[in-house]
Amino acid sequence: MSTITRDEVAHLAHLARLAVTDDELDTFAVQLDVILSSVASIADVAADDILPTTHAVPLTNVLRADEPGTSLNRDTVLLAAPAAEGGRFRVPRILDAQE
Amino acid sequence: MHPPSSMTPVAPQPDAATAPIAPRSFDQVIASYQPVIGLETHIELGTRTKMFCGCAAAFGDEPNTNICPVCLGLPGALPVANAAAVESAILIGLALNCSIASWCRFARKNYFYPDMPKNFQISQYDEPLCFDGWLDVRLPGDSVDIDGNVEQPSSVRIEIERVHMEEDTGKSLHVGGATGRIHGATHSLVDYNRAGIPLVEIVTKPITGTGERAPEVARAYATQLRDVIRALGVSDVRMEQGSMRCDVNTSLQPIGASEWGTRTETKNVNSLRSVERAVRSEMCRQAGVLDAGIRIVQETRHFHEDTGQTTSGRSKEEATDYRYFPEPDLVPLAPETAWVDSLRERLPELSAEKLARLQTEWGLTDKDMAAVLGAGAVQLIAATIAAGATAEVARKWWLGELARRANADGVELEGLAITPKQVAEVQQLVDRGSLNDKLARQAIEGVLAGEGEPGQVVAARGLEVVSDTDTLGAAVDAAIAANAEVAQKVRDGKVAAAGALVGAVMKTTKGQADAQTVCTLILERLSAS
Ligand SMILES: [Zn+2]
C-alpha cells in the first residue's frame, strides 16, 4: 500500500527544484514508499527508554571564540561563480515573468 | 516561522478581490472590531564575527569581502557556533524574563533563494534557546489593561513566545527594473557579507485586548525592546540600518466573535513610528475588506514609508514548506545552569527598576515619564544629563524642539544629526547668558543642518546675545519713545504692559537680546522717571 502519493512526490520535486517526468513520479512514489516503510520499522523497536539519537557523537556546546578568522579573496571566489558583476554574484531573474 | 525578510519580493500585485475596497476610518474599525497583534523582531547582534564562521560581521564593507567556505556553503565546510552570539542571545532571553532551554538544537530551514548560497538558513525550529518570557511596556497617558478596561497604571504586559538564534541572509541588488525593485528586474547582484551574521528573533504571543491602543502598544513594545537590548550592549539596534527589523502581525476579530480573524504579516517596517503606522493602516484596510464581506488572505504585506499603506506580497501559503530538520553539522546547545547564572549576573539594571530610579532622579510624574518613554528618549536624556545638562533642561530639549524637528523630518529622535553632548553644549551657552531660547533653537538648527559644533554655529551665524548695555539701552529708549502710551501704562503701575516694549526691543535687536535683561532695563527707566 502506497502511503506517499504521486502529488506529494511532485510537490517535493518542486521544492527541491528537480525536473521530474510523469513516468518518474510513478517510479519515485513507489521507491520512496519502500524507503519510508523501511525506516518506519525502527519505530517497532523504539521504546520509551531509548532516547532519540540526535548526533553521531554525544557532544554539546561546541563553540568558537568570537575571534576573526581569514576570509577568502573576493576575486578568487567570484572566479568560481557562473557570473559576477561589480564584485557581486550575478544571478538570473528571481521572479518569474508573470510574477 | 516565516521567510527571511528579503525572501518575499516586493511585487505590486493587486489583492485578488480587494484592490478597489476603501479602508475604514480608525474609529469605524474600533467600533466593530477588536485587533489582535503580534510582533516578530529580528536583532542583528554586534559580535565581531559571524554566527558560524570567523568572517567579520561588519556593516558597510566592500561587497563579498567577508566571505569564506562556511558562509558560502562550499562543500565540506563545517559551521561552529559563535560563543559570544550564544551568550548575547541568552542575555536577551534573560532580560525578557524567559526560561532558558537546558538543551536545544539548530535546524535547517530549506528554501531556494539567492540570498543564501547554501539554499538553507540555519535557524531554530521547535527548540528555541529561550521561551515563555514577558516585557512590561509602559504607555504614555491613560492606559488599557489586558482586558481592555481603561486604567491608570500605564503598563501592558507583552508575553514573549520565544527568542531564538539564526543567521542573517545576503543582500540583493535588483537590476533592470524600476528603482531597484525585484519586480521587473532582469537579474540580481548578491553580496554575501551579511550572510551568516548572527540574528536573534524575538516573537511575542498574540497581544489581545488593547483595542484602539493596539498601534501605540506595538510601537511602545518595539521602543522598549530596543532600549532593553541596547542596555545589554549586544547590538546597536538601529532600525534605519537594519540591525533591528520588526514584522507586525495584525488581525481583526469582530466584537462578540469567539474566533480570531485571519492575520497578515507586514514587513519592511523601518522605524518605530512606522510600527505604529503599519498596525493602524493594516487595521483600517482589513476592516474595509471584512465589511465588504470578503475574507482576509493570510499573506505577507509590505509597508511603504511614503504612503503609510501596505501592499500585498506573495501569498504565504505558497512558501511555508521549509522542511525544517535538525542541523546535522552542529551539536546541540545545552547551557548549564552555572553558565546561565553567570550571564544573569551580567545583566545591567534593566527596565522596570531602572526606569523607576530614573523617574525619581529626574523628578518626573508618571505622565511625564510615559511621554519620555513613548518618545524613545530615555537614553538620549540620560546622556544629555551625563554631558552636564539638568534633567529638566534635557527633557525640555528632547521632548520639545528636537521632537518637533524629528516629527517634521519623519525620523526617530536618535536619527537626528545632533548628539546629547551637543545639546548639553547649547544649553551651557544659554546658562552662560550667551544665547537666549530663540538663539539656542537657531544654534540647534545649525547643528542639525551639519554646520558643525554648537560653538561653530554660534560664531558662523553670529548668534551671540546682545549684552552690551549701551546698545541695549539705546534700543530700550527708542522703544519707550516710540510707544509712549504703553510706557505711560507701565509708569501707572501696569507692569504687564511692559511686555509690548520688550517685544519691540527684541524686534529691533532681531531677537538677539536677553528678554529678562531688557525687561529689567525698561522697568528701571520707567520707574525712575
Ligand atoms: Zn564566513
Quick structural summary:
The complex is a heterodimer of chains A (99) and B (529). Chain A has 99 residues and is mainly α.
What can you see in these coordinates?
- The complex is a heterodimer of chains A (99) and B (529).
- Chain A is mainly α and 99 residues long.
- Chain A has a domain at 6-45: Orthogonal Bundle (Histone, subunit A), CATH 1.10.20.
- Helix content of chain A is 39%, strand content 9%.
- Chain A contains 4 helices and 3 strands, in the order H-H-H-E-H-E-E.
- A two-stranded antiparallel sheet of chain A has the order 2-3.
- In chain A, helix 1 (6-15) crosses helix 2 (22-40).
- Chain A is flat, with a radius of gyration of 22 Å.
- The model of chain A has no long low-confidence stretch (mean pLDDT 87).
- Chain B is an alpha+beta fold and 529 residues long.
- Chain B folds into 3 domains: 26-338, no CATH class; 375-461, no CATH class; 469-528, Arc Repressor Mutant, subunit A (Orthogonal Bundle).
- Chain B is 37% helix and 18% strand.
- Chain B has helices spanning 26-32, 83-95, 214-232, 272-291, 337-345, 351-362, 366-374, 378-386, 391-399, 401-409, 420-431, 437-448, 454-461, 469-482, 484-491, 498-508, 515-528, and strands at 33-44, 81-82, 99-100, 107-110, 120-123, 130-138, 143-144, 150-151, 155-167, 171-175, 187-191, 198-204, 244-254, 264-269, 299-303, 310-315, 325-326.
- In chain B, strands 3-6-9-12-1-13-14-15-16 form a 9-stranded mixed β-sheet.
- Chain B starts with 25 loop residues before the first helix and ends with a helix.
- Chains A and B meet through strand 1, helix 4 and strand 3 of A and strand 2, helix 2, strand 10 and strand 11 of B.
- Zinc ion binds next to loops of chain B.
- Residues 50, 53, 55, 67-68, 70-71, 196 of chain B line the site of zinc ion.
